Amino acid sequence: MRTFEYLRPKSVEEAIEMKARLGKSSSFLAGGTDLLIRLKDDEIRPEALIDLSFVKALKEIKEAGDAVVIGSLASYADIGASPLVGKFGWVLAQGALEVGAPQIQNAATIGGNIANASPAADGIPPLYALDATIILAGTAGERVIAVGDFFTGPGKTVMKEDELITAVSFPKLSKGEKGFFKKIGQRKALAISKASVAAVLRTANGSIEEARIALGAVAPTIIRCPKAESILDGNAVSAEIVAAAAKAVSSESSAIGDVRSTPEYRDYVVGVLFERGMLEIFPDLL
Fold first, then answer.
1. Does residue 100 sit in the same domain as residue 199?
2. pTM given for the model
3. CATH code, 16
4. Domain of 187: which CATH number?
5. Phi-psi region of 42 (alpha: psi -120 to 50; beta: other; left: phi over 0)
6. Is residue 181 part of a domain?
7. What secondary structure does DSSP assign to 175-203, as a single string?
8. Of 162-166, 181-185, 188-192, 251-255, where does the model show the most confidence?
């Protein structure tokens, strides 16, 4: 039977000290929904697990001026039910409630999901659309990194060996902003995304001043859609503009095929999901 040391730090500082001392022979444990599967499948063989669940400061969801700050140990159930996230970042609340079954939502943490760096993660595209930043702490101090600069490939990030994700932060959405999260999976619920779309649009007087569109499960990392965004930016909302942007969304997808879907279907369906989301937030286009 494989064994490992089990450690329970009670502060961020203590957790960082443990990781720096143990290095690659150790792994942080947050919700465990990804880590425990990797342990079971023998993908990783740590000599020590550093359980973060006793670091209470990492579970907070709070306001910080014009931003919302979510501790890395906040579960997706907490995020989906948070009045703050529902009011100022509802796109993330929508994504949080699409993460697996309720049992997974109650256990899985946003920090663990980010660190896992899956391009199919439902909680990550909304962070791109919200222009979020990720806050890291390590022996060298704190770093704040834009979410778009954090992921380098499937399962890969810019995190250093001794660093810990402490929080994610995003600017509060205002009344003039609209947004949505859409996904499609093998089933209607409880399935990993074949493809997903998150969007936030700042509007005024019937025009789109700025659009941020992110796609999941169609590239090695979550990606933004600059061509589609430029089609929308500065233009009045119309069926023609939305259709043109949806076509651009499909063209910017660079999906691969796997057991869940073909690349052609993924490239096509992200455009459909985008158009459906736009029709929901702009019902006059129907």
1. no
2. 0.93
3. 3.30.43.10
4. 3.30.390.50
5. left
6. yes
7. TTEEEEEEEEESSSSS--EEEEEEEEEEE
8. 162-166
